[in-house]
Amino acid sequence: MAERRAFVTGHPIAHSRSPKIHGHWLAKYGIDGSYQAIDVRPEDLASFLGSLSGSGLRGGNVTIPHKETAFALVDSRDEAAETIGAVNMLWLEDGRLWGSNSDWIGFAGNLDQYAPGWAANGPAVVLGAGGASRAVIHALKQRGVKDIRIVNRTLPRAKELAGRFGAGVSAHGADAVGGLLADAGLLVNTTSLGMHGDATLAADPGGLPDHAIVTDIVYVPLETPLLAAAKARGLKTVDGLGMLLHQAVPGFQRWFGRKPEVTPELRRMIVADIEGH
Fold first, then answer.
1. Which ranges of the chain have pLDDT less than 70?
2. Which of 85, 95, 233, 253 is an S-S bond match for 259, by CB 3.0 to 4.6 Å?
3. Do 167 and 205 fall into the same domain?
4. Per the confidence metrics, is the pTM higher than 0.90?
């Protein structure tokens, strides 16, 4: 069988850890395949995607800043992509370019691994109303969370998002966060607060009940100020690295024909890579 080839594209893309994740699985399962990072400028994305059918590539991942543009450019989209409004995964089928979004699977899979039963824990507070929060809210709705509270600095954006997802999703300004945490079972940070040495707390986890779980989709650093504060408060915390690892599973399965495992070995390898940079 000919070598199976897939890719990740973004701009810039050199920082992507996806080639290491997929490369690890290709080696582990003895699959004749490759997964490469391809830097494509925003103005070149349409021609790049248009050329895929004759390239020998089976598909690939799409990352920042191309997720919304790719959503508009693909021939067909599945339900997850339609709901989230962004595409992070592509494949070719019967001459058509398909788009999906596996970020929500990454979010749910990470919590399944490190906080089993999380979806039954109570109301969820989601900080931020950007693209990442759409994937998180879709995951929460898919898992049956009935009360989802979006908190955002600009209230109209939170309201727009709540309207998109409908029943059980409410919008709130940043000043309301304290009262929203009092009975919450899950606090999710989807904002960039706490990234790369930023010491700003996305929210104060001090007001959460003792059974609450706190997770951050940021994974550089692995322990953000929010997670550190939640841990100090004695709460269960889940870092964002597992979301990256678990979102890679559906793509690998589609392009290379095997469902891969997210193992402690894979996590250690990526943690070492993060800490080495």
1. 1
2. 253
3. yes
4. yes
